[in-house]
Amino acid sequence: QVQLVESGGGLAQPGGSLRLSCAASGFAFSRYTMGWYRQTPGNQREFVATIGNQGNTNYADSVKGRFTISRDNAKNTMYLQMSSLKPEDTAVYYCKCLSNPVWGQGTQVTVSS
């Protein structure tokens, strides 16, 4: 059974940093492309970044140069290092295996002074 558990969210000041983690279980993590998405109230979930099984990455224009996605296949864990945070980055952040419909519970990120 696929399980994804996000953590690391919280309150950050504009210009600050946070590191999100996604612990995965129930599937062969190292074989699949993983992604981060985010959602604000009243809006659809939007793409943030993906990382392939070979480590190839892709980012939304809105986070390019500020966020870094990475993975540790030995730990079945994916990360999102977020820097130079902006108030518009405030959202619930979710991780997902792109080959599976299961979503994690999400972790709230709030950027505010």
What's the short version?
The chain is an all-beta fold and 113 residues long.
Explain what you see.
It is a single chain. The radius of gyration is 13 Å and the shape is globular. It has strands at 3-7, 10-12, 18-25, 34-39, 46-51, 57-59, 67-72, 77-82, 91-97, 107-111. The chain is mostly beta strands and 113 residues long. The protein is built from no helices and ten strands. The model has no long low-confidence stretch (mean pLDDT 97).
* Rg from Cα: 13 Å
Strand order of the largest sheet: 2-10-9-4-5-6
General form: globular
> Approximately how much beta-strand content do the residues carry?
over 45%
Write the H/E string, N to C.
EEEEEEEEEE
Structural class: mainly beta
First-last Cα distance:
40 Å
Number of strands: 10
Largest sheet: 6 strands, mixed
SSE layout and pairing:
Layout: E1 3-7, E2 10-12, E3 18-25, E4 34-39, E5 46-51, E6 57-59, E7 67-72, E8 77-82, E9 91-97, E10 107-111
Parallel strand pairs: 2-10
Antiparallel strand pairs: 1-3, 3-8, 4-5, 4-9, 5-6, 7-8, 9-10
Features:
113 residues; mainly beta; six-stranded mixed beta sheet; four-stranded antiparallel beta sheet; 0% helix; globular
